[in-house]
């Protein structure tokens, strides 16, 4: 069994800076196992996973085959699972996924590929599952198993409650699992209710296992599985008993671990040399906020014994010269300075009530708000947008992708009907266009790409909603821009890689506007990964842009899918009850996303409800730290700070 020196981590963990580095390392590990087996003249039996986690691993394996001669002639594969029922040719089948991302590009023998069969009739499944189990055994068992992890802690499709001894079988999918998959199936109603999956007992027979979790969205479940107790409610925790399992994370998904949340606790366990904690202001903020929340006291009420009892005595020594009051006051003052009602500066006076007035800033700034989808701007920072326009700044909103995938067909048809009725009065071919849209809807099967007229009308719906919402926050119409970045326009949930054309479009709009401030989405856990690609396009051009705009300041916002950790926040903008209500009204302008959005993720709340809840919760957390009881707070992190922390 692999040993871990970290007393909190019950599965060995390897953390990389980003997903690409982690994926390249995993691919190299797989390649090494294949080569070792080749030198022995033996077959290499691999258990393979699907989903977003292994895509870059498979891409690197293909590269190793094509550019470095890695052969798969001796490889036998067994996939973890498959939806049921589902035809092999479906874009959503794992048979299609594996062939598109790996098998079609390497020299593996077709007879060596094994994937659970989603085309069987139910009466055949039990016999097939026994056959699948026996086939793995006949081939000598799995030399290596690659796993991802679901938000419920499932591995394969072994849902909560699965037995440690379970074998390959038909399983009913948890609603949360189906909700997580709904973004690929264009709605939960299209996600199959069943799947055939290897059992946990089958997986645990593998000689070596690597389980990977990437992105901020996997933070909570990764820390639960790695540091929590073994429980059938989190099936991945059974891996704690496996003799050779490694959990691979990137920095974003690892942040929930104690080594990042409270590294001083590990230092107290004698791991100081391994951790090398630097006791600076950032550590002080993190430590004091953590301590305040743990003991339930406001910052200025923390006492010496609170620090001593929670392994933070060194913080007092390094930062407070042995006096906890100095540490308390230092952190309190630092946090006080990040709360401001003037997000672009230019505050005309120092009166507290100026937070909630419409006084103009003494200096006018140019601001770009980059919104990945057409509603991210108002969901995440609608209150701040209203403040910026009220204070007289020149605010530009740049919508990066069309977001047309997120419109229901019935909404598109209704919109085409409005166009038809309008053109009956003013003249035009509205009826002809309506019939085209209706035909394309009727002929479309679940998962098919929208026809051109249907895609166009959905784009127009999102565009007009975005314009209405931006105008509602005070943005002038000429300052509303739509980029329709090419990487997004595939008509599918899987997008094209970011290309030079995308970067050029982003670069050109920045240089055209010449902003003093940029606000961009740091909310990177949206279902299709669009936010991440949009941010990458901005980060790619910023170094060149800053040569011409050296004073440019960039902030990242969140709110639709997650919120910033308090110790990272560099600006918190308070909202009054009226301002929070005005933000809600702006979000309501996105009628196609109201009540039941196409891609809600696992959260059943509407986006305005999520946003308000997060803004109010942030205000409550600040109140508990000892600050004014604001109605709500929108939080931002300066890009430079995240880069200095090594988190971007």
Automatic annotation (TrEMBL):
Location of the Glucosamine/galactosamine-6-phosphate isomerase domain: 25-245
Matching InterPro entries: Glc/Gal-6P_isomerase, GlcN6P_deaminase-like, GlcNAc_PI_deacetylase-related, Glucosamine6P_isomerase
Enzyme class: hydrolase
GO biological process, one term: N-acetylglucosamine metabolic process
The EC number(s) this enzyme carries: 3.5.99.6
Entry-linked Pfam families: Glucosamine_iso, PIG-L
GO molecular function: glucosamine-6-phosphate deaminase activity
Similarity field: Belongs to the glucosamine/galactosamine-6-phosphate isomerase family.
Descriptive protein name: glucosamine-6-phosphate deaminase
């Amino acid at each position: 069994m692999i040993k871990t020196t970290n007393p909190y981590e019950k599965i060995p963990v390897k953390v990389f800076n980003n997903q690409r580095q982690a994926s390249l390392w995993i691919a190299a590990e797989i390649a090494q196992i294949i080569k070792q087996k080749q030198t022995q003249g033996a077959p290499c039996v691999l258990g393979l996973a699907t989903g977003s986690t292994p895509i870059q691993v498979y891409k690197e394996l293909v590269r190793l085959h094509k550019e470095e001669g890695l052969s798969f002639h001796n490889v036998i594969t067994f996939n973890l699972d498959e939806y049921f029922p589902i035809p092999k040719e479906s874009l959503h089948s794992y048979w299609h996924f594996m062939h598109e991302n790996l098998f079609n590009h390497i020299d593996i023998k077709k007879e060596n590929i094994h994937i659970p069969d989603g085309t069987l009739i139910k009466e055949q499944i039990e016999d097939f599952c026994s056959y699948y189990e026996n086939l793995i055994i006949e081939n000598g068992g799995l030399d290596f198993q690659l796993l991802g992890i679901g938000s419920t802690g499932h591995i394969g499709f072994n849902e909560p409650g699965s037995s440690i001894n379970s074998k390959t079988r038909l399983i009913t999918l948890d609603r949360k699992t189906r909700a997580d998959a709904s973004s690929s199936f264009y709605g939960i109603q299209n996600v199959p209710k069943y799947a055939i999956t290897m059992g946990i007992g089958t997986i645990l027979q593998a000689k070596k296992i690597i389980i990977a979790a990437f992105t901020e969205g996997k933070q909570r479940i990764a820390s639960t599985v790695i540091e929590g107790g073994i429980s059938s409610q989190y099936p991945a925790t059974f891996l704690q008993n496996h003799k050779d399992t490694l959990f691979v994370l990137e920095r974003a998904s690892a942040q929930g671990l104690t080594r990042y949340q409270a590294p001083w606790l590990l230092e107290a366990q004698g791991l100081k040399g391994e951790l090398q904690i630097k006791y600076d202001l950032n550590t002080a903020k993190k430590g004091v906020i953590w301590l305040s929340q743990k003991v339930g006291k406001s910052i200025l009420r923390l006492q010496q014994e609170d620090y001593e009892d929670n392994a933070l005595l060194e913080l007092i020594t390094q930062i407070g010269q042995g006096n906890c009051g100095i540490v308390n006051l230092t952190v309190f003052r630092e946090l006080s300075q990040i709360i401001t009602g003037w997000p672009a500066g230019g505050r005309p006076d120092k009166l507290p009530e100026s937070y909630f007035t419409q006084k103009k800033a003494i200096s006018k700034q140019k601001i770009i708000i980059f919104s990945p989808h057409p509603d991210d701007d108002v969901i995440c920072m609608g209150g701040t947008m209203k403040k910026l326009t009220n204070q007289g700044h020149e605010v530009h909103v740049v919508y990066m992708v069309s977001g047309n995938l997120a419109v229901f067909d019935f909404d598109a048809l209704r919109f085409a009907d409005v166009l038809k009725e309008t053109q009956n009065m003013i003249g035009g071919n509205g009826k002809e266009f309506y019939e085209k849209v209706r035909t394309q809807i009727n002929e479309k099967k679940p998962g098919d790409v929208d026809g051109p007229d249907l895609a166009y009308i959905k784009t127009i719906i999102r565009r007009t909603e975005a314009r209405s919402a931006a105008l509602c926050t005070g943005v002038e119409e000429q300052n509303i821009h739509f980029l329709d970045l090419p990487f997004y326009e595939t008509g599918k949930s899987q997008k094209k890689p970011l290309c030079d054309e995308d970067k050029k479009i982003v670069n050109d709009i920045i240089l055209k506007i010449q902003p003093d401030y940029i606000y961009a989405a740091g909310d990177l856990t949206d279902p299709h990964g669009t936010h991440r690609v949009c941010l990458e396009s901005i980060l790619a051009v910023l170094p060149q842009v800053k040569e011409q705009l050296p004073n440019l300041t960039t902030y990242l916002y969140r709110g639709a899918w997650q919120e910033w950790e308090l110790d990272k926040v560099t600006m918190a903008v308070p909202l009054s009850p009226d301002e929070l209500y005005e933000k809600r009204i702006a979000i309501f302008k996105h009628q196609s996303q109201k009540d039941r959005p196409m891609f809600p993720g696992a959260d059943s709340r509407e986006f305005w409800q999520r946003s308000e809840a997060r803004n109010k919760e942030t205000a409550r957390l600040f109140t508990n730290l000892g600050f004014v009881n604001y109605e709500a707070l929108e939080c931002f992190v300066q890009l430079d700070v995240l880069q200095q922390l090594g988190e971007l």
